[in-house]
Structures are given as structure tokens and as C-alpha cells.
Specification:
Elements lengths: L14 H6 L4 E3 L4 H9 L5 E3 L14 H20 L9 E10 L5 E2 L5 H13 L3 E12 L8 E14 L5 H8 L21 E5 L2 H5 L3 H27 L1
């Protein structure tokens, strides 16, 4: 006897999400993981348009400043390029950037090569813990002419990750050679095979994956609320 096929859950029935579900929403990132996370809250029809501007901010910035400036640059670049698109202006642009911070305060992005990847994971294992920061920026055009013409909201979220001390050099080498972590900040994917390296986390799991969902939803609601408020201000100005 065949097991019954489970139904997919219905999308979240929230006014902000419902108002943009059939409109043009852009994710300014090529990350399939961020796209999957947005799909979890019902944003499945998302255009993937990553920023092509090099990420060249100095590593001397604090982790907070570094991820926020990088995510802001991604959002602003894609928003500016798409606002006059013949397909129509975007209802929303979402950008994010994630970095892993070593115990010594070094910003770890994607490993440069296999030896760097191995060294990176050994450093994370041998430390007590490390931090993961994700900055999220959400932009939306304003219906009124209020300067600067768009609503802009941002946040930076922090999660502490602890690798297991039982992770051997052999396991690290084996994981590196799966290539799963080669394109990820810090060199591991907590949502995949990389979970075998992790003992515990303090904070948001999806922040480590690359997009903290609850804060992202709050930003979406805020920028759309900003647009509603701008329309009200414009209407009051017209009456005067």
C-alpha cells in the first residue's frame, strides 16, 4: 500500500506578502539557498539579478559595517539598474551578505583554494566558537514623489556557531573534497553535509544559511508600510 502523498503547506497569509506575491520581486543574489529561504515564506516567483559590482570594501571595517556596506551596495546597484526596466519597476529588491568571523576577528569569506579551505575549517574547529553575520537590505519604490523616491530598511543579524572538538583532520579533508563548502563564507554549509562539523549554535539557523527569515519579513513589512505612509502624506499635501 502506497503512503499518502503529503500536501505542500499553504503560503503565509500576511498582507505584506500577499500584496507583492504577483508583482516583480528581485533577489540581488545568485545564492540558491537565499532563494529557497524566500520560497519558504511564499515568495516563489522571485527574479534572480545579482549585483555585478566587485565587493571591495576593506577588511579593516568591523564585521557589522562590512556586511552592511556590502549588502547595501548590492541592493542599490540592482535597484538603480532595474527601476526603469521595460518589464516594470520592481515592487521590492532584497539583498544580503554573509560573513564568518574567525576567533581572531578575521573576516572569512569563500575559501580561495583547497589548502585555504582546510586551514579555515581547522581554525574554526580549534576555536571555542565563531560568529556569523548576515546583513539584509530591502528596498521598494515609493508611490509618492517623496525624496529619495524609495523606502530603505536594513538589519544585521549575528549567530554564534560552535564546531565539535571531535571533528578530525580526516573528516575536514573529506568534507573539503565534497566541494560543498567551496562557495560558502567560512567554507561550510550548515544546511547540508557541513552540519556534521557543528556541535551547536546560539541564534538563528537561517542566518548561518544566508538569510534570517524573521528579520527579513519584518523589513519587507516596514518598507511596504513606508510606501503606504508616503501615499498618505502625498494625499494630505494635495488637500492642502
Amino acid at each position: 500500500m502506497k503512503a499518502p502523498v503529503g500536501r505542500a503547506p499553504l503560503p503565509l497569509d500576511l498582507p505584506a506578502l500577499s500584496s507583492i506575491r504577483d508583482r516583480r520581486v528581485i533577489l540581488a543574489s545568485a545564492s540558491p539557498r537565499r532563494r529557497q529561504l524566500l520560497a519558504q515564506i511564499g515568495l516563489t516567483n522571485v527574479a534572480i539579478i545579482p549585483s555585478t559590482v566587485p565587493e571591495a570594501f576593506p577588511k579593516t571595517l568591523s564585521p557589522f559595517e562590512y556586511v552592511l556596506q556590502t549588502a547595501t551596495q548590492k541592493a542599490m546597484t540592482v535597484y538603480s539598474a532595474q527601476i526603469n526596466n521595460p518589464d516594470g519597476e520592481p515592487a521590492l529588491v532584497i539583498a544580503a551578505d554573509t560573513v564568518v568571523i574567525s576567533p581572531r576577528g578575521r573576516i572569512l569569506e569563500k575559501p580561495r583554494h583547497e589548502a585555504d579551505h582546510i586551514s579555515m575549517l581547522k581554525e574554526l574547529r580549534d576555536s571555542l566558537s565563531h560568529k556569523v553575520y548576515t546583513a539584509v537590505v530591502v528596498m521598494a519604490p515609493l508611490s509618492s514623489a517623496r525624496d529619495p523616491g524609495y523606502a530603505f530598511e536594513s538589519t544585521v543579524e549575528e549567530t554564534t556557531v560552535k564546531f565539535s572538538k571531535d571533528v578530525s583532520d580526516e573528516l575536514i579533508l573529506s568534507y573539503v573534497r565534497t566541494r560543498e563548502g567551496a562557495d560558502k563564507a567560512g567554507g561550510y554549509g550548515i544546511q547540508g553535509i557541513g552540519a556534521i562539523l557543528v556541535d551547536r549554535i546560539e541564534g538563528s539557523f537561517d542566518n548561518v544559511v544566508g538569510l534570517p527569515l524573521r528579520p527579513t519579513l519584518a523589513l519587507i513589512e516596514k518598507v511596504l508600510q513606508d510606501d503606504d505612509e508616503s501615499i498618505g502624506e502625498f494625499a494630505e499635501g494635495e488637500e492642502e
